[in-house]
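so ive been stuck on this for like two days lol. basically i have the seq below and the ligand is flavin mononucleotide, smiles is in there too. i just want the complex predicted, nothing fancy, no docking runs or whatever. if the output looks off dont worry ill sanity check it later, just need somthing to start from for the group meeting slides
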Amino acid sequence: MNLVQLVYASRMSGPLSMSELVQMLDVARSRNAQAGLTGMLTFGAEEFLQVLEGPADAVNALYSKLMTDPRHKDLVLLGYGPIAVRQFADWSMGFYSLGDDGLLAEAGLPADRFDPASMKFEQALRLLRAMSDRLGRAESGAGPAGTRAMSSRPREGAAPIRQVSG
Ligand SMILES: Cc1cc2nc3c(=O)[nH]c(=O)nc-3n(C[C@H](O)[C@H](O)[C@H](O)COP(=O)(O)O)c2cc1C
């Protein structure tokens, strides 16, 4: 199969509640599973960072939709290219809500600021991989094999996304 990986950063267009985000993820996960897409999504106060991987046609088609999705704006393509094997095979769309958990520093990034648009492809991938590892660790043993993609929900009690003005 002609597998590719795509990483982009974007900014929320306006306020997005955690429940709206969870609903969007539910839809995204079932669509991704059908299209053979895997990946990881994370966000800061106003920013998204997402990696998509799968057949080139499916990745390209989704990115076209993402470019016109009014829920976010200012998309920056950080990297795109062929891959031999998936790096996020466990997740139909893993979701990690970035907190004060030392993950930025672990990935070699400034710990005080999440600014995905300025990241290099390799830095962004390192961060997303670290998230995937943490999700995997947190959820290993949580259920039968293959259920992790569905259980990578926002953590219970996670802080709501800060309201974004304008
Ligand atoms: C930050 C962000 C990430 C998204 N991730 C996905 C995704 O992984 N898969 C997906 O099908 N849709 C995702 N969407 C939604 C798509 O932009 C789009 O709404 C969806 O594919 C349905 O498009 P359609 O109704 O025109 O077919 C995402 C949207 C946003 C704002």
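Residues 141-166 have pLDDT under 50 and may be disordered. The longest helix spans residues 121-139.
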